[in-house]
Amino acid sequence: MFKYIGKRLIYMFLSLWLIVTATFFLMRAVPGGPFTSEKQLPPEIQKNLNQYYGLDQPWYHQYFDYLTSILKWDFGPSFKYKGQTVNDLINGGFPVSFMLGMEAILIAIAIGVVLGVIAALKHNKWQDYTAMVIAVLGISVPSFIMAAVLQYVLAMKLQIFPVARWESWAHTVLPALALASTPMAFIARLTRSSMLEVLSNDYIRTAKAKGLSRGVITVKHAMRNAMLPVVSYMGPLVAGILTGSFVIEKIFGIPGLGSHFVLSISNRDYTTIMGVTVFYSILLLFCILLVDIAYGFIDPRIKLTGAKKGE
Amino acid sequence: MNTKIAESNEKWYTNAGENYTSNGPFKLKTWKHNDKIELVPNENYWDKDAVKLKKVEMYMINDNNTELSMFKNGELDWAGMPTGQLPADALPELKKDGSLNIQEIAGTYWYKFNTEQKPLDNVNIRKALAYAIDRKGITEQITKDGSVPAMAAVPPTMFEDNKKGYFKDNDVKKAKEYLEKGLKEMGLKDASELPAIKVSYNTDEKHAKIAQAVQDMWKKNLGIKVQLDNSEWAVYIEKLHQGDYQVGRMGWLGDFNDPINFLELFRDKKGGNNDTNWENPEYKKLLIDSQKETDPKKRLEMLKKAEGIFMDEMPVAPIYFYTNAWVQDKQLKDVVMSGLGDIQIKWAHFE
Q: Topology relative to the membrane, per the entry (chain A) (predicted)?
């Protein structure tokens, strides 16, 4: 196991290096720089700014300087937000996005799995159809429409929750619901089809024949095998949600990390672009690694190291 | 600036707290980046007894619809300019229920002509294009925020008779006359012989709608074909500065309430905010001399004369003068808005 993890970590490092290099060169290729504005700066000030941010060095200089500072976990100053470093931006935004993301994931898993299991157990009955209609709605309705509807109905009309911002527990409910709606629907469908496939297997029939109760069969035997596709889906999902959804954070006025992903590009804020990309990549690669390790525990048939089964 | 603070703490301005130095009726109590700012009365302010508000909270909301929803739900006391913006489609409804406030401010939305590109190097073609725009239609159907049609460069807050302007809005007859003159000078017989003119703008719903309207007006009134070109803001600005455009949309909001702020944009051909590649020696001389003129009345006359030259050569087609549009809580009184559109909340209070 440890040899496996070690090998994976080396591959992760390699991937990260490729991602950093590609992003570094791509973002420099876009026209317009961090100081482009309708009020053109006098050339002396431009020169000073370029010097301060190291933009006057040849590209390979900037590239290697950047690689070494990343290894020290120093993403540099933000070009756009004077006085703040990219580390400040990430440290400020990530905890908020993380909390919102965790809430959304918990809601998505809890409701999604339950809906999927019920739909599978009551296959082709009204519970199945209802659950699947809910799922299709969740997948098709874009999150910003869901957000607007939640704001209108639950906040403005029924006055149960505040419209926006991130202050108390009550503020977190609507954005988490909006964020969870699509993943929840996906998880419901995945769970359902996976459960249906598992329930038709021989070992389930064996368990029934042996007289085990419905509950034990469903939870202990069927679900454990049905969860595999859901776990695969969860890897990238978790990384994506935890780093913040730009749309949800914008609509609900939440000071998370999501906005920085998008705005840094239009701002040509090179350091922030690099910083959030590296951060997200590390998180993503890590989540994928966790998913792969989880496979080994959930399904003993899967041997990560490739060793022969049995023997 | 307090030298002791500047010397001891280089980053005093990055966060609120003991070291944050400011003057003014309020001081910064907390600053949660990207989230909110809290202001409380400044006990060292010279006029501190005039300040009635106990606390001001400023929330950073990026979405205009959310801003308006929060206002309607009672979570905000002020929505819209100058601190935020109202969503464009909500304006007619707010106007109907009487809650919309509008004030003209010192700013002009205009279309710049790249005077080094044919056919825009011909002054009669430029005038034809400028005269053929229906500004009233644009402000009533597209912006819907009480913006004022502009037939002059400097806003009426600085030159009052610019409300009337230098020419008639949507003067299609005169436009056609200028077009004919221009075509003759270029040796062409008909507008269809002109190449399509490219109108550029930065990605935004309003700019797109206005560009489409202008495209339609120039086609219908002058028979001139227009190609639309939109780019993201930073890319767009680079294009303007590099001269990679024919007609480009831009706006200018006054930094201070004096005409020189608008006129000096175009003083030098390669000036940082010119982009039109136009300059005129008499215009330049008037602006430079006006800075030495000590009699304020004479000085304004010189500036008006300069504007006359500018409007006669039309390197820029003004479209409308900006307004601030906002809604505020009915009990909130005594917020003062300047001609430039900023607000002073020193005397503000709730009844």
A: Multi-pass membrane protein
The reply to whether A44 touches chain B by the CB within 8 Å rule is no
Residue A62 within any structural domain of the chain: no
Work out whether the CA dihedral B62, B63, B68, B73 comes out positive or negative: negative
Q: Is ipTM beyond 0.85? A: no
Report the residue of B63, B265, B270, B274 to disrupt the A interface, i.e. the one with the largest count of A CBs within 10 Å: B63
Report yes or no on A57 lying in a domain: no
Is residue B220's pLDDT more than 90? yes
The length of chain B in residues reads 351
Distances in whole angstroms, Cα of residue A118 to Cα of each of A112, A201, A262, B257: 10, 18, 39, 69
> Could you read off the pLDDT of B223-239 as tens digits, one per residue?
999 999 998 888 898 89
Question: Per the domain annotation, does A167 fall within a domain?
Answer: yes
Picking from B11, B19, B35, B36 by the largest number of A CB atoms within 10 A of its own CB, the best residue to mutate is B35
Q: At A175, which CATH number?
A: 1.10.3720.10
What are the Cα distances from residue A311, in Å, to A68, A300, A307, A308, B172?
A: 47, 14, 9, 7, 92
pLDDT at A188 exceeding the cut of 90: yes
Asked whether the beta carbons of B199 and B111 are under 8 A apart, the reply is: yes
Q: Mind listing the pLDDT tens digit for each residue in B102-150? A: 999 999 999 999 999 988 999 999 999 999 999 999 999 999 888 999 9
Count CB-CB contacts under 10 A for residue B282: 10
Q: Are B108 and B252 in contact (CB under 8 A)?
A: yes
The per-residue pLDDT for A311 is 43
Amino acid letter, B45: Y
Cβ–Cβ under 8 Å, residues A75 and A87: yes
The mean pLDDT value of chain A amounts to 86
Task: Name which of A262, A233, A236, A288 is nearest A93 in CA terms.
Answer: A262
CB pairs under 8 A between A and B: 93
Residues of chain A neighbouring B57 (CB-CB closer than 8 A):
none
Query: In angstroms, rounded to a whole number, what is the distance separating the alpha carbons of residues B194 and B226?
Result: 10
Give me the residues paired with residue B249 across strands. Answer: B111
- Report helix, strand or coil for B173: helix
Contacts of A151 in chain B (CB under 8 A): 66, 69
pTM (two decimals): 0.80
Which structural domain, as residue segments, surrounds residue A165?
99-257
Whether residues B234 and A165 touch (CB distance < 8 A) is answered with no
Rounded to 5°, the CA angle A234-A236-A242 comes to 90
Interface touch B35/A40, C-beta < 8 Å? no
CA-nearest of B64, B85, B107, B112 to B253 is: B107
What is the residue type of A134?
I
Phi, psi for A232 (deg, rounded to 5): -60, -40
Contacts of B235 in chain A (CB under 8 A): 30-32
- Tell me which residue in A30, A83, A159 faces B14 most closely, judged by beta carbons: A83
Strand segments, DSSP code E, in chain B are 26-32, 36-41, 56-59, 78-80, 101-113, 148-149, 197-202, 226-231, 247-253, 316-328, 332-333, 336-337, 343-344, 349-350
Q: pLDDT (tens digit, 9 = 90+) per residue, B50-68?
A: 888 889 999 988 888 899 9
Query: Does residue A158 fall inside a structural domain?
Result: yes
* Beta carbons of B40 and B49 less than 8 angstroms apart: no
The shortest C-alpha distance from A171 to chain B (Å) reads 12
B162's tokens: 């610019």
Non-local (6+) Cβ contacts of B104 within 8 A are B146, B148, B155, B156, B157, B321, B322, B323
Of the candidates A277, A216, A256, A259, the one whose C-alpha atom is nearest the C-alpha of residue A93 is A256
